[in-house]
Amino acid sequence: MCGIVGIVGGRDVAPVILEALKRLEYRGYDSAGIATLDDGQLTRRRAEGKLFNLETALTAQPLHGGLGIGHTRWATHGAPTENNAHPHATDRAAIVHNGIIENFRELRQMLLEKGFSFSTDTDSEIIAHLVTDHLNRGKDPRRAAADALRELEGAFAVAIIFSGEEDLMIGARRGSPLAVGYGDGSMYLGSDAFALAPMTNRVSFLEEGDRVELTREGAVIYDAAGRNVERTVKITDVSAALVDKGNHRHFMAKEIFEQPEVIGHTLSEYLDLVNEKLHLPDLPVDLATVPRITIIACGTAFYAGLVAKYWFEKLARISVEVDIASEFRYREAALPEGGLAIFISQSGETADTLAALHYCKSRGQKTLSVVNVVESSIARASDVILPTFAGPEIGVASTKAFTCQLSTLAILAVRAAIARGQIDAEEERRIVHTLIETPRHVAEALGADGAIQDLSVDLAKARDVLYLGRGHNYPVALEGALKLKEISYIHAEGYAAGELKHGPIALIDENVPVIVIAPMDPLYEKTVSNMQEVIARGGKVLLIADKAGIEHAGEGLWESVEIPAVDPLIAPIINAIPVQLLAYHTAVSKGTDVDQPRNLAKSVTVE
Ligand code: HGA
Q: Phi, psi (5° rounding) for residue 213?
């Protein structure tokens, strides 16, 4: 989660950018840098490590100029060195970037063939050269930036400045956040409102796909389709800005929409994108020989564990038990010698999970935890931790923590498969590419937001709702039902689609909506048969599937929601998005307290 700042101002902006970067250091501190336009020329200072080093460099050699961009880096591509620090620049353009450019290899090759040369290992540098390529073709900077941005694939936020253009900065958002700040005779860009708080409290948040042209006079914003649009300017409360809701009514919505970014951050922690390999810390067991894995968690984290069971067993052929912590801790489970126990908890403080961890340790298990809070009790008590990088999750109903847990567990399962000889180097490379496309597909899945909002008005009238899924979509069905219960107070149950005829089918009538998660995959036909059994009994079916899945579903659907067609490995992560949106909008339609639903607490530190 790198941090971005941009100022189109009057006086020397570098010291102001530096102060704003200090407020973004929580997003990364591998390196930092600032570029300004001094008498029309691009100049920059960069330094490895914390901002203090950049500050020292700036004191020794100050930067001048009334327009500039700054960056604090959390490296995904390329070592955290000064050379790889942003801003990246040519003699015509300088850029700062937050996110991952998925097609940077192809673009780099294309630009190398045109005679461009690269000086860093980052994906980001490509943007500076690509913009320059368009400028060299005689385009004006606005056009050059727009055309270059269109060629980029991935999830990102960027800020771009141009030599000779004292009154222009371009910003763009696709998957990573970017806020526009409005001053008097100056304009700002920032990764969040908190960064901009000392300069202005008038802020608008770019929407997915937006591009903004900033001058001292103001901002002109274009949406993904290139239409000139207005984005509401809000007055932020400086003290609240640290955990603001952005453009959203609720933290839960903000957290759902943050997923492309935080999943990208989590994945890039565990993937070496330059060498196209996994990159995990040393583990306390040898995954090649471990006799069994026991996964223990509660609530949503338990469902992440259930998905992981499918991955570990299918990819790595390891036997996996998944248990609810509150059951596990009292049933005196028999555990194999040398086994690995994995604990999943957003807060890392879940009391039952912590107690289960102590039990496992006392029975000689090696322990690994997947937590979002690294300074937590579960993290401290574990042999090794794999942190998720979801950032603070404020909404009580977990969303981004869940998909970050899945992202981490998917990588761990692939690591196990490599250790057991089930996946070779070539397949590992393919998987790294598949995984790194996840943020983009999540952003695509979020595109169903409007359609889901519309149909939630009807769903909000239901008293009971069933969710069906098969294979790894069964835990997603369970999670969908839990999400709906938690925040809309509608009774909902998730079932393995094949179980329907063993009981729950008795519940089917026209008043019980049935939500079926069935993208086109090897289990599709089976699930669709179960869905047809529901339709035949007058049931009201909402199908969540990719285009092919919807096309082949047959007659009689009540509604459908299209999600992107993706590799089965990442499908559970993508399929979680529509069920989160469905719960969210249904709760909003019902007028419940979405972020703090009744009777619940974010971190369950009691038994
Ligand atoms: N890919 C870029 C930016 C990294 C980032 O946004 N991290 O959160 C880099 O590695 O510099």
A: -110, 115
